[in-house]
Amino acid sequence: MARRSVSQLGENESVNEVFVASSKQLRPNRQGNLYLQMQLSDKTGIVNAMMWNANDSIYKRFEDGDFVRIQGTSQFYNGSMQVIVTQIEKVDPNAVDQSDFMQLSPQQVEQLLKELAAQLRGIRNIHLRNLAECFLIDESLISRFRVVPAGIKNHHAYEGGLLEHVVNLIQIAKAIVPFYPQVDEDLLVMGVLFHDLGKVDELSTDKGLAYSDEGQLIGHLVSGVSIVDRLIVEAEKLSGEPFPQELALRIKHMVVSHHGRLEYGSPKVPMTAEALALHYLDSLDAHMHGFDKLLADDANSDSNWTSYSPQFGRKLYKGSGS
């Protein structure tokens, strides 16, 4: 019997399926009774889940990142689907088809890495190409980069998501550069590579998708600049000469300004042509990916409109389908 995925959950349906559990919390309600709150996921999406009348024993049955079999009922609540859980048990990973929980297959990840390497080794500026090579030969960095998501919820929120986001952005960047001759293509490509690289330290996939302690305390912009600084040192060793200071400043400026606005977490706003282009291209790719996912996951199947999206601050029009 085919499994029921997150995206196939309908309102007021019985649920008896295996998911990945994450973000579990044991919390008291207003009367002081404990309930278990968590997220359940597979390759099609994430759904919030609640288990009333829980206790510490139930909480300790599984850890974040474990496969669990859920029994319960789905319901539509505050514009989103959720699952009210009545039974939960940990499942042996060997009894699970891992492909049901992977947005990108290992083969797809390898192909994306090959595409990324080809793009980076095609950089014309020798200093930037050396810097890119130092990234590509850093096995520890690549091993984390290939699995980390681009985010926890809003876009590319799955293992390999950051890699896919970066490869997409490089292709988009190269497509628009001919229309803006003031933009340095090689520099923009390096900005795309490094803009979210700090997420290898900010985010963790060990126990589901979650923020690490470094992510909570420092964030990926600061971590990203640290990685750039470290790779510049390696590039200087590789070339035997100093890395141009202005190039280093321009790269790090793109990292710290790519959110575009101070209130969005950037300590600086874009002040170079490449930084401005990176901000808008990054925003475009993230929002279009989030748009498509919202349309695909929307539980409001009887309407031409999605439910209200906190990410977009509006409902989205799905069309009549005619």
UniProtKB/TrEMBL annotation:
Q: Give the species.
A: Blastopirellula marina
Which domain of life does the UniProt lineage start with?
Bacteria
Could you list the residue ranges forming a coiled coil in this record?
A: none
Sorted alphabetically, which CDD domains does this protein's record hold?
Answer: HDc, YhaM_OBF_like
Q: Where in this chain does the record put each HD/PDEase domain?
A: 158-296
Keywords linked to the UniProt accession: Hydrolase
For biological process, the GO terms are: rRNA 3'-end processing
Would you tell me the protein name for this molecule?
CMP-binding protein
Q: Which GO terms describe its molecular function?
A: hydrolase activity; nucleic acid binding
**Sorted alphabetically, which InterPro entries does this protein's record hold?**
HD/PDEase_dom, HD_domain, NA-bd_OB-fold, NA-bd_OB_tRNA, YhaM_exoribonuc/phosphodiest
Its ancestry begins with: Bacteria, Pseudomonadati, Planctomycetota, Planctomycetia, Pirellulales
